[in-house]
Amino acid sequence: MSQGPSVGDSPIGKTISHYRIVEKIGAGGMGQVYRARDLRLDRDVAIKILPPEATRDRTAAERFLREARASSALHHPNVVAIYGLEEIDGAPAIVMEHVAGETLAAIVSRGPLPFARLLEIGAQIADALESAHAARLVHRDIKPSNVILTPEGQAKVLDFGLAKRFAPPGAVPDESTISTELTGSGMIVGTVAYMSPEQTRGERVDHRTDIFSLGGVLYELATGRPPFRAPSTVTMFHEIATQEPDPPSALRADLPYDFDLVVARALSKDRERRYPTAREFGDALRELLATVVSGEVPAREGAAPAAPNNLPAAATSFIGRAREAAEVKRLLTRHRLLTLTGSGGCGKTRLALRVATDLLSEFPDGVWFVELAALSDPGLVPRAVASAMGVREEAGRPVLDTVVEHLRTRKSLLVLDNCEHLAESCAALADAILRRGPACRILATSRAVLGAAGEARWHTPSLSTPPRADALTPEQALQYEAVRLFAARAAVVKHGFALDAQNASSVAGICRELDGIPLAIELAAARVNVLPATQILARLEDRFRLLTGGAPGASARQRTLRATIEWSYGLLSPAEQGLFLRLSVFAGGVSLEAAESGCASDETTEGDVLDLLSRLADQSLVIPEEGIGGSARYRLLESIRQFGWERLEEGGNLDAMRDRHAAYFATLAGRAEGELEGPSQALWLDRLEEEHDNFRAAIQR
Questions:
Q1: In this predicted model, what pLDDT tens digit does every residue of 387-403 receive, in sequence order?
Q2: Which of 141, 159, 206, 258 is catalytic?
Q3: Vertex 409: Cα angle to 404 and 411 (nearest 5)
Q4: 470 catalytically annotated
């Protein structure tokens, strides 16, 4: 037992054990921190003493001791080192490394940090977290006030008072991971503004919780404010669970869009979409820092007034897509022609408009939206562009020349929407404009690439959807973009609609069955005024009859799910249409081998199938994937597959194709039987599992 004054009195100037207390340097709910002199080793240390009132609280005392044990297990230059555990007049005290410097909270209170500096700090914190995670510790309270920056620029993570052990990926938590937890499942711990969505719900956490919190810290270091702000804890929980923060570049003009992308990934509501490890997060920050130092990241000019534009006002809120918007903006800094591709209804236009709106201050000479869906004459494309910009035609001069001359010295952004049926004309227009107008950028949307020189392609993904689960709470479901979109649109058509315990699983099922396609989800949500979510889900077997009646003012091909897919189908060649329909009998995807064997016809040889598959992928009707053993595999979104199935049935060819499908998989099963006893057993078991849905469909034949 150490001798000295009561810790209830100020110990400053006193000697306790072999420590002379010099000054108080911090305080919090879990203790007061003093700078002291270690008289034996002649060095400065920090001593954290549990307050007298907390010593009577067993939970607080155990948490205090847990901090000491957790921190002492870590030996990393970016983690404050623990020297020992003392008892001062009955109160536990942690003796630790004294770090001269300021907390990030104090630093950022004076304003945002220089970009390169915050990247360096973020990478160091990520290194510290990787060390903790390797020891199966999750910090759970990463925030600016828990990181000290030394005068030399070294970041030190402290305060592991909320740290807890977590099970390694794929492992079942055992006693070693839960026996010392003082904050079990269902209890919410941490600092609210930096909590991950799973923390706010009191769910079991893992290392990706720290990655979310670090993303929030970097956001604040870059912008001077945290990503989520609300007047109360309850509303803050709602913000974290359902809202996307403004991209950092929208709040600070010198930040590159690459940084938006990095932060958006770290702040993903769904932990599966975050960086899988702190090491990978740190690597991303270092890669970005290297490009900043080398000058490879295109510099952004200071904020400017919004440019002249004709962008249509959004009638509804923009849900999710923070990472996608950041990626598109990043690509536009590197490519002068960028085409957003994707299946019908996947949200290409809405994403392009969101990006264009965010970039208004980047293009002082105008941001112009050119709607091409209604055009059927390729020769009218230049005229549509001229009309959108308000450029008058000149007698005796081709409209294209007038457009090119107008844009020659202007820094403008053109958004060419729905180019797929006019691809050749749009490619020629883009080539003419970009050859003469070096400051111009073109953002196009199309179900297929334009085929222009220098064109970059970016595939527009579906919204994130919940995995199959026995039950989902509303809070769990709302972390997925598709569910948030459904809830927002349903509330418009039915006053008072909200996700609750009764409808959450059904809404999640609707979003999953519709593959996260925004148009399909919005059409389904429009039915909540006449059908509960459970019945909407049940009726999706006949989705083309159910999902009609789009938004007023929408084009005819955007008013029903069938019309949207019909438009894409109509742009295919006869050979492409034939293969597309035959592919619809495959469930859960199709291997290249199965497609070549089962989909050849009198007009299409097995050798033609690969080329046709590539063209269907270019048209965003087939999704290429990697199968077992790195083999080529292809998948149709379920709504697109059902369209093909119905067309095949209407043409009287469904039964014959199902027979061919069943015969192929009967042969495959026979081949597998002979391989399951040999050295390739594991590979064939994986292959059979991969084809589970196809075997089930063949048996049902």
A1: 999 999 888 899 999 99
A2: 141
A3: 100
A4: no
